[in-house]
Design the sequence.
């Protein structure tokens, strides 16, 4: 920003460097402790990492809008890599209308019909993995479970689900960051995945019983246009699984590392949701989101000018000692429901109820059937500009 008088402390760190993405915790601490608002000259943006400020900004959509993009790219100045979402990258009144459709389709009373399906699939998979003994908790548990139950609920065709859904989602989350090697590598050779997604967002290829068909039914009632319905289905296919895969993987890692927490869950399987929520807090799947400032606004004595981007570090906020006692510790007894792992405000994750149901099914099945869970090798995190999740999680199970 040429000619701007920056009153915020300057933090000479690239939040999208390989070093930070591999181990974000030192950056989180520096971000929080340098100031309520900092200036990140690597990208000419403001940064916020304290829980109270992150949450406050997420709640104030009028001052900090999403319609100019929830990634680094400013849609008012730059061209997005694909047509913007009509839910995530929209503000009222468009967001109000599109969100209302999803809220109705994803109402708890409607989703309860899927609970038995999720639990049955989880029981079958855990039973199989117990016979295997050692396996990869990502490639052989989290990914296949989520791909199957999510795709079935959406009404997707079976051919190509896992390959193309995960590939396309990898592009989408990398696109929220800079146009660096991670983004370029994700998009290179992705034509087949993009084509598959575009085809499977169409009404003609969606099974009549799924969420996708229900979204298109809103076209017939006049609530949505045909294009809006297409973009809403595409949004589901972009972000409907990877965040839950990452959160479930983190929960499995935390439980495998801490026998006391695992025993607590085993004795009380109803703590499955707490196990998932605490994993989302300790290891936020979506590490960063962006907002664009719509009017000059002051935070903690720092003036943030209209039109500029601000990075919100959900990962830093979720480990802020100002909010959480002993914040790095994974603790099933913690009341962690106010974490910002799902965002907050009108743009809070619309699919979070499904994510909780899916994770509860898996963690509950494990708690009922498994006596002991432990690491069978070194876990590995994959690099992504936005999403923090495991690429490999070697686990060993012993039956109860």
Sequence:
């Amino acid at each position: 920003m040429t000619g701007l008088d920056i009153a915020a402390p300057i933090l000479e760190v690239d939040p999208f460097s390989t070093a930070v993405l591999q181990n974000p915790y030192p950056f989180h601490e520096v971000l929080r402790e340098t100031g309520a608002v900092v200036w990140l000259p690597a990208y000419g943006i403001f940064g916020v990492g304290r829980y109270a400020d992150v949450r406050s900004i997420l709640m104030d959509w009028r001052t900090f809008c999403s319609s100019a993009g929830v990634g680094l790219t400013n849609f008012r100045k730059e061209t997005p890599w694909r047509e913007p979402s009509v839910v995530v990258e929209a503000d009222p009144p468009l967001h109000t209308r599109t969100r209302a459709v999803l809220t109705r389709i994803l109402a708890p009373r409607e989703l309860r019909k899927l609970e038995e399906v999720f639990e049955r699939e989880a029981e079958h998979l855990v039973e199989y993995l117990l016979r295997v003994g050692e396996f990869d908790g990502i490639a052989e548990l989290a990914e296949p479970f989520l791909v199957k139950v999510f795709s079935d609920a959406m009404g997707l065709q079976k051919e190509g689900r896992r390959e193309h859904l995960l590939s396309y989602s990898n592009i989408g989350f990398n696109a929220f960051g800079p146009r660096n090697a991670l983004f370029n590598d994700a998009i290179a050779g992705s034509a087949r995945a993009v084509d598959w997604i575009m085809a499977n967002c169409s009404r003609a290829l969606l099974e009549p019983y799924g969420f996708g068909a229900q979204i298109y039914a809103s076209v017939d009632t006049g609530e949505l246009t045909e294009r809006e319905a297409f973009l809403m289905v595409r949004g589901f296919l972009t972000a409907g699984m990877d965040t839950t895969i990452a959160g479930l993987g983190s929960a499995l890692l935390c439980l495998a590392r801490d026998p006391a927490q695992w025993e607590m869950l085993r004795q009380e399987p109803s703590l499955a949701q707490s196990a998932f929520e605490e994993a989302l807090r300790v290891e936020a799947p979506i590490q960063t989101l962006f907002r664009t400032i719509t009017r000059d606004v002051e935070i903690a004595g720092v003036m943030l000018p209209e039109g500029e981007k601000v990075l919100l570090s959900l990962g830093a906020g979720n480990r802020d000692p100002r909010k959480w006692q002993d914040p790095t510790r994974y603790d099933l007894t913690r009341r962690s429901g106010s974490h910002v792992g799902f965002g907050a405000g009108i743009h809070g994750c619309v699919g979070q109820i499904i994510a909780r149901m899916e994770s509860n099914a898996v963690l509950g099945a494990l708690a009922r059937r498994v006596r002991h869970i432990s690491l069978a090798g070194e876990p590995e995190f994959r690099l992504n500009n936005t999403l923090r999740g495991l690429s490999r999680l070697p686990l060993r199970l012993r039956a109860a």
Q: What stands out?
A: Residues 23 and 381 are 9 Å apart (CA to CA).
